Amino acid sequence: MQIKLISTSDVHGYLAPTDYSRRDHVAPFSLSRAATVIQQLTKQDDADVWPIVIDNGDYVQGSPLTYFIAKRHRTAAPLYSRLARCNHVVAGVFGNHEFNYGLDYLDLCESARDYPMLAANIHDDQHRTLFSKPYLLLERAGVKVAILGLTTQFVSHWEQPKNIAGLHFEDVVACAKRWVPQLHKLADVVVVAYHGGLERDPQTDAPTERLNGENRGSALLAEVPGIDAMITGHQHRKLAVKIHGVPVTQPGMKGANVGVITLEVNPQRQITHREPAVISVKYAQPNAQLMALVSPINEQMEDWLDTPLGQINGDMLVHNHLEARLHNHPYIDFINQVEMAATGTDIAATALFNDDVPGLKQHVTMREVMNSYVYPNKLAVETITGADLKRALERCASYFLLKNGRVIVNPEFLRPKLRHYVYDVYSGIDYTFDLTRPIGQRLVQLDYHGQPVQDDQSLTVTLNHYRAGGGGNYPMYQTAKIDRQLPTDMTVLIADYFADHPVVTAVQPTNFKVNY
């Protein structure tokens, strides 16, 4: 028998083939294109070839469409599970972003499903059915396959407490050590579907990131014997490798690829061959059945994206993202002004999340806002010390390196995952980096209201809730230091700001300098 473990992961609500930059845009990715590939891979489904389709999380959040459904058309939320049924999904795994809109909404998204959600390391005080199934056991022609579902344990570090009330996220390695031996008593093949990634290089085993527990895929394979195949995600990598002989896939993001692990099983129910692969959907036509389900709500959302909000005097488009991060930019400063207006603080920080952020055109619509501010962040006000702020700025300064006198991005922020969102630019303080100095000693000037910041000085700063909880390896920011949180998404705050300020002037900020 040939078993095909087919996976999607980190689709992030890109259901139709578009990035929403304009109404007529056609993108080479999407769940609808992936559906065509999955249809081809599942065409033979019998005693000889057994396709098993798994969605590995971060499915219901991340695009303008997911925001539109969550905030304006909640009744459309069951669409996600209907689409999964079209793709013959037999099991789902929770991604960290599944929790962004709260548990009631997540339950609504899954209300039309006929497949289980697997949550072995999520423990629920309230015993909700949604989190009650740790694994799925399947059987065909005498061969039994067990699928164990795991979610990155770092959800509790990032998510707003109210959105995960009653949930506890166990270390995935400890959880797998308990479950995998039990599953081998029940099944011939044990598969781990993990919404998390690899923290070490598959070839050298060298760490590729801080070993803080966010990604534990390498540890799972090194410390938990008996895993026959592993599906990963979260890092948005395109990955098909064998680690310690175990096939591992990760299919990128936005439905750009489909992961396939092929297992050959002999009549004695032993695995004789294992082969991982990742298949691009670039040339696949969007699946007609799936598009028929998506198109009505997608068209409503496209109308909403073209809603006028305000006007920009000057240039707030981002023409060079590295230069914007290196010298600050009117768009970045504008976002910080929105944050400070919403919270009443006079220090704020934001990131230019990725190199696709366009900034704002002269005539601003909701489309520009959604395409530039791509995360469903809410704001937190946090009281810190001057020493905390200095450590945070040193972390920011490590984003840059000098190479032959030219400024480049530190590879730590590029591999194994693009993490431009970890670098922040601040307003309300005056500060200078000197890139000729060693990392950790680059902050050479920091003033607040014209005076040097003292280590024991108390400061109040506005951050997004991810950073306020220490996300991005900022341990100086902690949930315990948060004074208050705003319940409103940043995109709404931006729209509200334009309602109060219909015309905004683009101003190049001068509070931040970099010497090199």
From TrEMBL:
Give Gene Ontology CC terms: outer membrane-bounded periplasmic space
**Which is a GO BP term held by this UniProt record?**
nucleotide catabolic process
Q: Which residues form the 5'-Nucleotidase C-terminal domain?
A: 324-478
Keyword Iron-sulfur included in the entry's annotation: no
Q: Which GO terms describe its molecular function?
A: hydrolase activity; nucleotide binding
Domain (Calcineurin-like phosphoesterase): give its ranges. Answer: 5-237
Protein name per UniProt:
Bifunctional metallophosphatase/5'-nucleotidase
Q: Which organism is it from?
A: Lactiplantibacillus garii
